[in-house]
Amino acid sequence: PAVVVNPLVEPVHVHIEEKVKATLQAEGGIDEVDVQGTFFVTVTDPNKGGLAAFRISPEDKRFKTKVHPNINRGSYTNNILELRDSTRAYTPNTPAAILKWRLQTKDEDYCPLSISCWPSIGNGGVTLTIEVEATDATRVLEDVHFSFTCPSHVSHQIVRVEGGEVQYDGISLHWRLPQMSANGGDTSTATLEFFAATDVNTVLPFSVEMYSTTNLCELEVEECFHMEKKEPIVYAVSRRTDYMLTVRA
């Protein structure tokens, strides 16, 4: 069947995606950060973009990279991503993962939030005070979401909220901050204090999820062109980094 082409959409779209998982310690410090990234290519117009090639910035040596078998490895050493076989063009409207990278580290700089956790036992339960600070001025964190286990049979009380909103769904307490950034202003820090009539092992560990539209791996698409004709191809680039943090006792 003929591919439906929208003339208002660029014939080639690059999406650079990263997943960051980290385990933090409640008293400070970090166990490990795991960063996994993927370079996706989606061709919407096969006539223009089916044989798209990309000139990219030099490899970020902090990360271990893997190139898809369909990509020309010789060209990649010269910072060109192009297909190994020109008879096997990109499948239209299907994201193709052509490059992956990974980093495992204990470097706290890869975690964009500093989270201080102060549990206090007493009055038949635990009072948990969480102080959060955005530490990376190069990225804005969106939809910052803390989730604390708090079963329905456990009575709880919100003592203090500075920033964001707290909701309870009968299973967990959810603290949501629409945006955090280290660029100053009132979105750089936030504090939550709550009491739960349970032990500390119920509310710890807790999870934090958020995303950013900037990546950790320094990878720029400098040019997109037809691998045979060498003519430039109009393209778009989008980026997203999803963070999944666990804070443990």
UniProtKB/TrEMBL annotation:
It is found in: Cytoplasm; Cytoplasmic vesicle, COPI-coated vesicle membrane; Golgi apparatus membrane. This is Coatomer subunit delta. Its main location: cytoplasm. It is a peripheral membrane protein. Residues 9-248 form the MHD domain. Oligomeric complex that consists of at least the alpha, beta, beta', gamma, delta, epsilon and zeta subunits. It comes from Cystoisospora suis. Belongs to the adaptor complexes medium subunit family. Delta-COP subfamily. It comes from the Eukaryota. One of its GO terms (cellular component) is COPI vesicle coat.
